[in-house]
Design a protein that fits this description.
- By secondary structure, this protein is of the alpha/beta class.
- It is about 45% helix and about 15% strand.
- It is built from 16 helices and 14 strands.
- The strands form 3 sheets. The chain has an 8-stranded mixed β-sheet, sandwiched between helices. The chain has a 4-stranded antiparallel β-sheet with strand order 2-3-1-4. Strands 13-14 form a two-stranded antiparallel ribbon.
- A hairpin with a 7-residue loop joins strand 8 and strand 9.
- The radius of gyration is 48 Å and the shape is rod-shaped.
- The chain starts with 12 loop residues before the first helix and ends in a 5-residue tail after the last strand.
Length: about 525
Amino acid sequence: MTGPIHLDDRYDEPDQLRDQLRRILRHRALIALGLVLGLLGGLALAEYRAHTYTATGEVLVRSTADPFGAVGVSADNQVSMTTEQQIATSAEVARRVARALRLPESQAGGLASRLRVTNPMKSRVLRFEFTAGNPQRAAQGANAFAEAYLTDRKSRNDAAVRRATDALGQQIRVLNQDLAEEKLEQKDAKTAAQSQLYTLQKRVLDIKSRDTDAGDVVRRATAPHLPVGPGLRVLLALGLVCGLLLGLVLAWLRSALDSRIRSVGELRGALHTPVLGILPDDDEDGHGELLKVGRTGGARAEAFRALAFRLRKTDGPAGPGQVLVVAPRDAEAAEEVAANLAAALAEYGGEVLLVDADSDVSGLSDRLPLMPYEAPTLEEAFLPSGSVLVEAEVSGRLAFRSGGGIGAHTRSSLSTEAHRLRAGVESTTVVVTGPFLTHADALAVAQRVDGVVLVVGLGTTRQDDLRQVQELVDCSGGRLLGTVLDAARPRRRLRLPRRRPKYRPASHPAAPMELPAQDGTFSVSRR
C-alpha cells in the first residue's frame, strides 16, 4: 500500500495571492509615495485647469454652398459638413480672426490650435469651441471664429455667383451680337436664338435673386463662469486612485527585484533547512547588553533558550558537541547569538566553552561580562588554557576563550572537545567567527565542527548570500543544522576601542590553546 503523496501547498492560488499581497504591503513607503504623487498631480492639474476657460458658439450653415448646379437636390445634400468643418479650421479663417482681433497674422496658427470645431450628428450646425486663459478672451475668440467663417463662406458664395453670371453674360452678349447683325437669316433660327436669350437672361435673374448669405449665428459665445474640466474634488479623487495604482506598481516592482529575506517562508524556500528560532526585537531593559541569558530578561532571552532547546534535540539528548555560529555578512549578529546560545546551553548544567576564532577583528571579549583572572580552583579545573569564566547566572559553567584565528590553538580546542564528548562528559563548544563570505577562517572551522548554525537578519540578508553559504558548507563537507532568523531592527552599535582583556594581564600571558584531556577533565596550563 502506497503512502499519501505530500503536495507542497505553497503554490496554491490563495496562498500565492496572500504571499504576493504580503510582499507588496511590505513596501508601504512606496505606496504612500504613489499616493502623494497622485495628490500632487491632481492639485497641479486642478491649478492648470483653473486658468483655462472654453467658450462655445454655434453657427447654422445655409444650403447655398453650390445652389446653381444643384437644382432638384435636397438642401442637406447640397452642403458637405465635413468640408465646412475643415474650412472653419483653415489658415485663411484664422488669418481673418487675427485681423479682426488686431493681432499679427503670425499668431494665426496659435489661435487655430486653441479652436475645436465639431458637427452634431444629423445637423447643419457647426459648434466653435475656443479655449483661452481668460473667460472674456475665450468668448471673444469663439465669436471671432464664427463670424470669420461666415464672412469667408459668404465671399466664396459671392465668388460663385460672379463666376456663374459672368459665364451666362458672355453667352448673352454673343446672342445679342448675332441678332443685331442679322446673321441668322432663317426665321426658325432667329426664333430659337431669341428663346435661348430669354432663358439665359431669366437664369441670370434667378442666380442674382438667390440669397448668398453663408449662415446664421444661432448661439453667441458668452464668458464662462467655471474653468474647463472637472472640479477640484474630482481631480483629487482621480489623483488618489492613480496614485494608489502607481504605488502598488512601484511596490510590486520593488518586491520583485528585492532578494532580501522578509519572512520565515522565504527563508525556508531559499535554504530548505529548518528554522531553529526567531529572535524578536527586545524592547525591555538591557538593550545594550550583549549577554541577555542569565543577566537580563525579556522575549529575546526566552527566544535564545528556545533555540538552545531545539539545538539539543537535533543530535540526541546532548545535541551537537561543536557548533559554529556564523552570519553571511554580519559579524555582530553572530556574536550575540553565539554568546547567548552558549549561556542558554550552560543553563542545562553542562560545561560550555565559547570560542572566538576571529578575535583579531572582533570585540566580543570587550562586550562579555568576564570574571577577573584568578588561579583556578578545583571547581574551575575544567577551564581550558587561556580561558576565563563568564559572569552569568546559569547552573552550568560558561567559559570564554579567544582563539586568535583558525590555527593550531583552535584546532586543539575542537579536538579536545571531541575527546571529552567521547569520554562521556556533557560539554559543548560554541565557536563564532567573522562573516562567512568575507573570512576564510569561517569555512575552515565549518569543516571541523559537528554543525553550523546560520544567523539570518530579517530584511538585511539576501537570498543569494544564503545559497552561496549553503553551497560552500556542502562542498566543504560541513553540515548546516538550521538557521536563526533575527527579526530585530538593525541598530548601529558604537565600537569601543580595543582594550586588553582582564584575564590576560601582561605579567601572566596565556599559554597556547593546548587542551590535553586528563581523566575526562580539562587541565589549565599557564606560564
